[in-house]
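Late entry, written up from scratch paper. The run itself happened at the end of the previous shift, but nothing got recorded in the book at the time, so transcribing now.
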Amino acid sequence: MILEKNNCLIYQYDNETVQIEAWGKDAVRIRATMNASFTGHDWALEEKPESLGEIQIYDDKDASAVVYANMYSGKNESFGSLTNGKITATVNADGVISFYNQDKKLLLKEQWKRLKDTPSMPLNVYGREFKAVAGDSFRTVSRFIADDDEKIFGMGQYQQKYMNMKGCMLELAQRNSQVSVPFYVSSIGYGFLWNNPAVGRVTFGINGTEWLAECTKELDYLVIAGDTPAEIEETYMGLVGKAPMMPDYGMGFWQCKLRYQTQEQLLEVARKYKSLGLPLDVIVVDFFHWTQQGEYKFDEKYWPDVPGMCRELNEMGIRVMVSVWPTVDYRSENFQEMMEKGYLVRTESGVRIAMTCFGQELFFDATNPDARSYVWSKIKQNYWDKGARLYWLDVAEPEYTTYDYSNYRYQLGSVMEVGNIYPKMYTQGFYEGMKEQGDEMPVNLVRSAWAGSAKYGALVWSGDIVSTFECFRRQMRAGLSMAMAGIPWWTTDIGGFHGARGDDPSFRKLFIRWFQYACFCPVMRLHGNREPQKGFEGDVVSGIGLFGSGADNEVWSFGEEVFEICKKYMFLREALRPYIKEQMLLTHEKGTPVMRPLFYDFPQDKKAWEVDDTYMFGTDFCVAPVMEEDVYERSVYLPLGCSWKDVFSGICYEGGRTVTVDAPMDKIPVFIKAGSKWEINV
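Output as recorded:
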């Protein structure tokens, strides 16, 4: 049965209901369930604009339907269609859904493997599959026909060498350094959002695409049609929410290390930056500065005058950022109250422990609005009111000691059903608290995200990665994938986090190359756990003595050559501030990512769709990082459509060609559009 109801196109057969609805500009939302009704959750789609679409229902006996049906499916059959701007969704009498653009080009179609659909294929594999798991929840599968020539970009952050996701199988789950943001842009001309926070997987195979949710009550996805990747991305960001305007401090240089153990250590570093005349906007107080996990306050023994520290830093033009974990130790002074009020993540079986990090901890339940408010009240009292007003939301996945998702439950549902949304709601609590205190441009450095996190000021970094060139190459592609997935604020630990000695010549080369790259990232931030470890003095109950502070990790910590190159790029970043501010305004107003693949700006250039080691930094700069050791020249493809000038040599090149340029240790190949108003001196 195909009918129109409440401005939606409805397909109903037996106990399945499919709802096709216009959703914003050039987009349609599809929901399907075996239950009596839909849940009503909009998940990532929080910014729904008014949109009705045009619905038509055709009977196969209607002569006028024959022509219209042939335009789409080439078959004379009854079906319904919903057109919303540049996209048309159709559903036929068998329930098969297809999507077309304004030129009647097929963009996407469900894959049904039955004899009547495909010759010699009596498999009875359905495009939508529901298998009951418990109560009114199902294990669902959604299948689509694959296009051999299609390229797929986005999906968040996966630690792999691929930027084109075609051929990849991806886990839809959050882990330390893995960020599942299930939106992609296709080279065919559409965008796709899997609007479901359930744990699962997606396979972009050459013989079909398959989305799996292990436990959910309904299928839910969005398809957008657009003529360019930029148009698709901007439509998507308008539906899930665009980032706030990045404040000025976010565009400069940020300093961090494994952790500064004491107030005086941190102040000494800040004073040295200023005495050397170096720019510094943010300095970070990392983990285990607290009395206990889940108490959300400084240990006064080591941080005796936080208001005074913040005043001194502010006078130097430096803001302090404080690490916050969602962990609540059983020994925390807040544990019993949070347990009584239902603010902690539950376990389905076994001992109620979610993480073991120098103690036994549970996570606060970020899906519970009262729990978010409670945690923010502690943050305000112990940090905000004392002058520490920027927050590093670490362990945001959250990082279960054992990633047994089936054993944990939030107020919103089981982790299997809703787990991927946790980092978004974690960030939301801080964003709303900061807005209440008058911060109109909140920024939260956070280790995970989901679709729509950008609207809550999420600045995502790529997690606890290792210090190798191979890992560096993965991060560049991960950052571009995050941008296409709708997370425009993204950064890395310069030099990587784990496994490097500051006196290692090989690491110093890596550090220089990474530092140069970071100059052309949305946020330029130095962090890392350097060897050899030190700083095991102090109390062992809270962890301040159990966990060291790592070796020095400031720009002067790695020898004079490294220091001089770092200074060069720190001041180059300062020179770029007006340009970065203009790009951040585009991010805020239109949803444009600051860094993006070449094809974003040059979609007509077929070669640009193949390049995964060079990217655009804003509208005018083409950046080609050196990501291999002992390499001092680089081949760079320059997109077709304009001329490009090497910012270091001043040599101009025509676009649409590959050039080889020198890349000595102090130079990252960077090109600017010829005639750009943003000429810079280096």
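The longest helix spans residues 469-484.
(Scratch paper discarded after transcription.)
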